[in-house]
């Protein structure tokens, strides 16, 4: 079956000409209507077409070109991203893109770490989440109109993960009704906040509140950093860029120090905790409510893991269709490298994962909006579940996506190492997601603690009902159950797949809980006992998160089936879901074998079924990546161009290399000529 209608995307940057014949053939042979899958991914035809209009507008706009990025210095890249910010603002006005969603779509299409990312992603959400109605009325219109530009300044030189260890102090001065912000030590210097170095005029600063020598914990404060007239730092503020990084060149991550800077009392964001004029402090309804913006961002990051991985897989799959190496037998045509089983085994599980994470993103978005609804009604009961689930999923999805991009790069051979493949910068700009918004390992501890706690409660109180995703912790009988998938066919049963993931997660939780007790019986207190099981806690968090991802993928397919989605689409999604489920069992086989849940009776059919799934996906691989519907601009890759003119594009882009501006190398006269022409 061919696609039901053609995507309406311009091929920008790629060298024009007849498309690659292999790609054309593969596209014509897809087993499902590609366009329908695109609609499914982006939430319907109307929404897809809207996104395409925005993507096309960006892709065809010279200001948003990406091809120069490899040849610019750090400073030039920062300036270029400011040019993009200005143009972004112009386009909002010109095309009436005033809704938050339109603006988010536009930023996503621009596809760059703009120095307003923190302004829209954390500064405004913190005012919305933590500010009183009056504070919102005062700052939101200014922020939304970009009359002020803000960031989120929490991390310090000395502490990031351990928020309670932050050293910046906000001391309340009752006599003037002001807070005095101070950085008492070098390690109190704010360090890392995006757009802090050179761009922001304001920021939300997290500082320890002190009232009459009493420590009241870390709270958010609105602080102006720079003059709105000339952008000079205000008195008492030392601010700048933290210098070169692994990548992220367009972003001015910054440092910031305060020397007894005074701000009015109403600059503490007081939706949940308040300081009255006389210094009376009212505690927030939940001690971690001021961490809510981080939870919001973690949910957002989970949502972007799918699209980031999907880009890498699109590049690698298209290239692997175009690239040919070796005939199988002499005299035969060379094989597309995607025909090789090893290439499929590297790429197709990642393709399946990109789809799996799409449904995880939908799930966490829904969970987050339910949580916000509750919070508005002063109901914080979902916060622990929201925090723990998002912490675990953020870790798992960013780890897998980061490693997946690198796998895609390596699977493109030598050309994958060229920056023109788009993969090195995709990787370098993405990997900090494993660190920012909570180091992944530290986040795993949060989920593991939560699971251990619930497991302990369920053990202590049989019959206790736990929330949906963790309800398996109630059923310790599950530990006695074994896998019965003794044929390839049985491995395709979602109930059996989920049983395996639940069993592994429960086993690891139970094992951790037992080890905790054993450590305490050896004489350790609880704190030290936890230290002794920390590596296992990371495994626990990952195992649970895998289960959540798979459970959502399975549920999503069931819902699609119930809502009448066509059989070809359901079939291909089911194949991807199966591959996701079985691949990650195979990848962690030791976990499943260790306690005898699986034996070689089950592993042989498991491996065989995975091979069958790879074969099943092969004819649809190009269509499945096409369904993500990325423009060439979004991919920014000579290897991933939609028309498959990989070699032409690579060759043309290489001509832009500044070294090629002259035929004779710079430095020739000083350094090469003397020895070439020296007398023997
Ligand atoms: C486009 C992308 C741009 C990205 C730009 C990046 C921005 C940033 O990176 S901003 C800075 C982000 N920083 C972090 O994420 C820091 C990570 N650290 C933390 O979140 C926390 O400090 C912690 C979770 C590691 C621990 O918090 P701590 O204050 O030390 O609390 P305790 O360990 O004592 O835990 C007490 C209790 O509270 C629970 N809890 C912790 N955080 C939350 C939360 N956000 N929501 C709800 N509950 C939370 C924690 O689980 C404990 O619970 P119990 O075990 O039940 O006591
Ligand atoms: C690109 C980028 C952008 C950022 N943007 C911002 C921003 O806009 N605003 C902002 O405020 N911050 C920002 N940050 C900072 C970021 O949030 C922190 O770096 C992050 O939270 C990790 O904290 P850390 O650096 O203190 O790591 P550390 O906690 O020092 O981690 C170092 C190592 O120690 C381990 N470790 C830490 N604690 C424990 C423990 N209790 N038990 C066992 N192991 C432990 C970790 O797993 C890790 O391996 C950004 C960082 C980056 C890289």
Automatic annotation (TrEMBL):
A biological process from GO: lipid homeostasis
This protein's record includes keyword Oxidoreductase: yes
Molecular function via GO: acyl-CoA oxidase activity; FAD binding; fatty acid binding
Domain Acyl-CoA oxidase C-terminal stretches: 493-676
Region (Disordered): 1-21
GO cellular component, one term: peroxisome
Major place of residence: other
Pfam families hit by this protein: ACOX (PF01756), ACOX_C_alpha1 (PF22924), Acyl-CoA_ox_N (PF14749)
Residues annotated as binding FAD: 155, 194
Positions of the catalytic residues: 437 (proton acceptor)
Cofactor: FAD
Acyl-coenzyme A oxidase N-terminal domain boundaries: 34-149
Subcellular location field: Peroxisome
Family: Belongs to the acyl-CoA oxidase family.
Name this polypeptide is given: Acyl-coenzyme A oxidase
The species this protein was found in: Capsaspora owczarzaki (strain ATCC 30864)
């Amino acid at each position: 079956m061919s696609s039901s209608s053609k995507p309406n995307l311009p091929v920008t940057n790629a060298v024009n000409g007849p498309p690659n014949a292999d790609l054309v053939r593969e596209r014509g042979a897809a087993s499902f209507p590609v366009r329908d899958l695109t609609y499914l991914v982006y939430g319907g035809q109307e929404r897809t077409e809207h996104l395409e209009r925005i993507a096309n507008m960006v892709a065809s706009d010279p200001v948003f070109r990406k091809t120069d990025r490899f040849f610019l210095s750090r400073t030039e890249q920062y300036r270029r991203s400011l040019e993009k910010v200005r143009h972004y603002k112009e386009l909002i006005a010109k095309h009436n893109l005033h809704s938050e969603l339109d603006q988010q779509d536009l930023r996503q299409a621009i596809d760059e770490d703009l120095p307003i990312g923190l302004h829209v992603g954390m500064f405004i959400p913190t005012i919305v989440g933590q500010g009183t109605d009056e504070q919102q009325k005062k700052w939101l219109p200014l922020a939304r109109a970009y009359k002020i530009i803000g960031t989120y300044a929490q991390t310090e030189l000395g502490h990031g993960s351990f928020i309670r260890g932050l050293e910046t102090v906000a001391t309340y001065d009752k006599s003037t009704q002001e807070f005095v912000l101070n950085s008492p030590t070098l390690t109190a210097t704010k360090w890392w906040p995006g757009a802090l170095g050179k761009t922001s005029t304001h920021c939300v600063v997290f500082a320890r509140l002190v009232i009459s020598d009493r420590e009241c914990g870390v709270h958010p404060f609105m602080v102006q950093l720079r003059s709105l007239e000339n952008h000079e730092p205000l008195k008492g503020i030392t601010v700048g860029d933290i210098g070169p990084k692994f990548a992220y060149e367009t972003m001015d991550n910054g440092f910031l120090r305060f020397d007894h800077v005074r701000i009015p009392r109403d600059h503490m964001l007081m939706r949940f905790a308040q300081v009255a004029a006389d210094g009376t402090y009212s505690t927030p309804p939940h001690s971690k409510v001021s961490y809510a913006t981080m939870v919001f961002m973690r949910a957002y990051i989970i949502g972007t893991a799918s699209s980031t991985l999907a880009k890498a897989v699109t590049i690698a799959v298209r290239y692997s269709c175009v690239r040919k190496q070796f005939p199988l037998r002499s005299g035969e045509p060379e094989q597309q490298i995607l025909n090789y089983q090893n290439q499929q085994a590297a790429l197709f599980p990642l393709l399946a994962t990109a789809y799996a994470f799409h449904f995880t993103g939908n799930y966490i978005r829904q969970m987050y909006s339910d949580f916000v609804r509750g919070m508005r009604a002063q109901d914080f009961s979902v916060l622990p579940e929201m925090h723990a689930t998002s912490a675990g999923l953020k870790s798992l999805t960013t780890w897998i996506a980061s490693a997946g991009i690198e796998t895609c790069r390596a699977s493109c051979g030598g050309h994958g190492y060229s920056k023109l493949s788009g993969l090195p910068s995709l990787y370098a700009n993405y990997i900090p997601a494993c660190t920012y918004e909570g180091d992944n390992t530290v986040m795993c501890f949060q989920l593991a603690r939560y699971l251990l706690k619930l497991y302990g409660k369920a053990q202590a109180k049989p019959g206790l009902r736990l929330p949906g995703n963790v309800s398996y912790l109630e059923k310790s009988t599950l530990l006695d159950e074994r896998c019965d998938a003794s044929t390839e066919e049985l491995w395709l049963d979602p109930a059996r797949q989920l049983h395996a993931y639940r069993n592994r997660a429960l086993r690891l939780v139970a094992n951790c809980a037992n080890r905790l007790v054993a450590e305490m019986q050896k004489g350790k207190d609880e704190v030290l006992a936890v230290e002794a099981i920390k590596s296992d806690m990371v495994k626990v968090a990952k195992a649970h998160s895998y289960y959540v991802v798979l459970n959502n993928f399975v549920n999503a397919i069931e819902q699609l089936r119930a809502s009448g989605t066509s059989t070809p689409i359901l079939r291909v999604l089911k194949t991807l879901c199966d591959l996701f489920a079985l691949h990650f069992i195979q990848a962690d086989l030791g976990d499943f074998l260790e306690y005898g849940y699986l034996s070689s009776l089950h592993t042989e059919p498991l491996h065989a079924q995975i091979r069958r799934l790879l074969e099943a996906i092969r004819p649809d691989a190009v269509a499945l990546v096409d369904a993500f519907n990325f423009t060439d601009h979004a991919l920014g890759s000579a290897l991933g161009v939609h028309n498959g003119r990989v070699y032409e594009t690579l060759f043309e882009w290489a001509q832009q290399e500044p070294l090629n501006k002259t035929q004779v190398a710079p430095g020739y006269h000083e350094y090469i000529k003397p020895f070439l022409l020296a007398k023997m």
